[in-house]
Amino acid sequence: MGKIEDRITELGLVLPPPLTPPAGTRLPFHSVHVVGELAYVAGHGPQAADGSIARPLGRVGAEVSPEQAYEAARLTGLAILASLSRAVGDLDRIAAWGRVFGMVNVAPGFDRMPDVINGFSDLLTEVFGHEVGGHARSAVGLAALPFGIPVEIEATVHLGD
Amino acid sequence: MGKIEDRITELGLVLPPPLTPPAGTRLPFHSVHVVGELAYVAGHGPQAADGSIARPLGRVGAEVSPEQAYEAARLTGLAILASLSRAVGDLDRIAAWGRVFGMVNVAPGFDRMPDVINGFSDLLTEVFGHEVGGHARSAVGLAALPFGIPVEIEATVHLGD
Amino acid sequence: MGKIEDRITELGLVLPPPLTPPAGTRLPFHSVHVVGELAYVAGHGPQAADGSIARPLGRVGAEVSPEQAYEAARLTGLAILASLSRAVGDLDRIAAWGRVFGMVNVAPGFDRMPDVINGFSDLLTEVFGHEVGGHARSAVGLAALPFGIPVEIEATVHLGD
User: Fold this and answer.
1) DSSP code of C22?
2) Which of C105, C86, C91 lies closest to C42, judged by CA?
3) Best residue in B25, B27, B29 to probe C by mutation, most C CBs within 10 Å?
């Protein structure tokens, strides 16, 4: 077990299994695509412990509260760590986080997207620390996200040896 | 002619000429910008055979059907391959696709963006195969796309020798 | 002083101090995150000379005119140059711009996002020239941007020695 996996266990966190997409959905791409030292992380949403899409669904500021959305961003982070672990074998191989693009499914009038995506950034800091977990970020409001998920995050990660 | 160009011909596909932007539109950037081994692909939309913006225009789920949007994502792919061909000379130089960011112009209530952007992913698989055509992807709903196009896609591509 | 800093002074431009975020806002990430030769630029908005968020706020096509939004994109560019200068020490280290992702906070019916983001692209050309300032770009309409800013831009930049 690597140090990051140990840290995840220490924190009492559990990484979910691969996404079970909704019936009739075809997703012909990789959750994480490694090219040389770069790992491109596809857009992920929050997942439940069984791999299904986590609830609640809907727009932040209407069906989903900002607090629930913060938690959804954290769950999205766990789903991303799980995909990275499956793709690269050992999360200790992550040398640096590059870009994080945080997308929030917004109801009219909601513009506190940074507070929501902090759920993801805070998780990175807890798990990787300030040095390796540091990243650049955007946190913006989308008109729609797939299947009504409240949060979606994509990222670029740099791998070491 | 390279192998990928041959494959495109075999499939009966035709790459469009450069985009003819709407009158009065200034686009002061590169359709594809190569920096070292990376080719950054600017946001592209669907193009007709004469290089103009393809029809229909509008929001998916209202003026544009999901089936028409799938086709628009496929046409967007052909426009991207055409720009890449002009920028790098030979599509065989593409060693790997990295990140694909699929944007759909959505009407309220439409959230099946993955089904739309599959038109692009399926084209990559047909042309490049599963190995080179593999990619990470997001497929999300935008509030507006330029000139009312239903789909816009940007990407990062890795070049080899 | 580097050549690019000289050019900025010649043009009569002034780079703003670090962003003063709105009260109660926590932004736990880097404005620019350097990993090897890549500088990932977080989403930036327009800043006033004192580092606060520039006015006007709101949606382009409603509270904010296209002309004001062009200017906001230019101010966003100055904020990005300021962050890059603080992160890498000398803007002459910028070897190439890669990807520019321009996001516009749109009112229903507004779809001239390219005209808005031209405020950023034009600034890059003025400051860096066509060679180094060249870039790939998307310019799209978002449902909401943080704190009601009219424009947000993120980018990837390549550094040299």
Assistant:
1) P
2) C86
3) B29
- How confident is the model over A44-72, as pLDDT tens digits? 999 999 999 999 999 999 999 999 999 99
pLDDT at C161: 75
Q: What is the mean pLDDT of residues B123-133?
A: 98
pLDDT score, position A161: 75
What is the spatial order of strands in the sheet that A32-35 belongs to? A32-35, A38-44, A151-159, A94-105, A136-142
Domain locations in chain C?
A: 44-159
List of residues 6+ apart from C24 with CB closer than 8 A: none
Name the DSSP letter for residue C89: S
Per CATH, the homologous superfamily of domain C44-159 is RutC-like (3.30.1330.40)
C-alpha count within 13 angstroms, C-beta hemisphere, residue B78? 24
Total beta-carbon pairs less than 8 A apart between chain A and chain C: 84
Decide if C77 contacts C8 (C-beta within 8 A). no
Could you give the percent of chain C with pLDDT greater than 90? 99
On whether any CB of chain B is under 8 Å from the CB of C56, the answer is no
Closest CA to A4 of A90, A89, A88: A90
Minimal CA separation from C50 to chain B, in Å: 30
In chain C, helix, strand, coil percent, each to 5? 35, 30, 35
- Indicate whether A106 pLDDT > 80: yes
pLDDT by residue (tens digit) across C117-160? 999 999 999 999 999 999 999 999 999 999 999 999 999 999 99
Q: How many C-beta atoms surround the C-beta of residue B24 within 10 A?
A: 7
Which residues in chain B are contacts of C97 at CB distance < 8 A?
33
Cβ within 8 Å, pair A35-B158: yes
Q: Is the peptide bond before B56 cis (omega within 30 degrees of 0)?
A: yes
Whole-prediction pTM value? 0.98
Q: How far is A22 from chain C (nearest CA, A)?
A: 25
B1 pLDDT more than 90? no
